[in-house]
Amino acid sequence: MKNSVIFFLLLLCSVASAQSTDTSLGMVSSFLVKSEYGKTVDVAALKGKVVFINFWALTCAPCLAEMPPIGRLRDHFKDDTNFVVLPIDVDNDVPHSTKYMRDKQLGLTVYTVAGVVPKTLFRGMLPCTVVIDKNGRIVYFHEGGSDYDTKEFADMMEGLRK
Questions:
Q1: 3-state helix/strand/coil string of 3-25
Q2: What pTM value is reported for the model?
């Protein structure tokens, strides 16, 4: 019974989710991620680029539901070298995550955490999406599942690119 109550509370938190597009969410601090190809990237060093980060896991159904829209978002901006998509597998299960991305033909490179994750970017709830503007400001934070195929989200991303 206790586990059912905990699961229910987690589900409620996920459904209610926390979302903000307030520009006062802070600045991104140094945060290292590693690509499936072994390249380490400091997210703070991506200043000058719009960065879309999604923390996810293969065991998270809402995470998997977000992947096709995230793949389409990456496809939409694929010619923009100043737009970066970082799907970060928090389970660090690169072989299975890369297989999933390839099997689903999502065209997304898998990243894993390569250092300490700042609480401004991830607090433990999956999925979690963060958008960082060209100045290194966190301008969007959302915990829980979402649909990134909406006109409103596309308009926000287009505005950040300018």
A1: HHHHHHHHHHHHHHCCEECCCCC
A2: 0.84
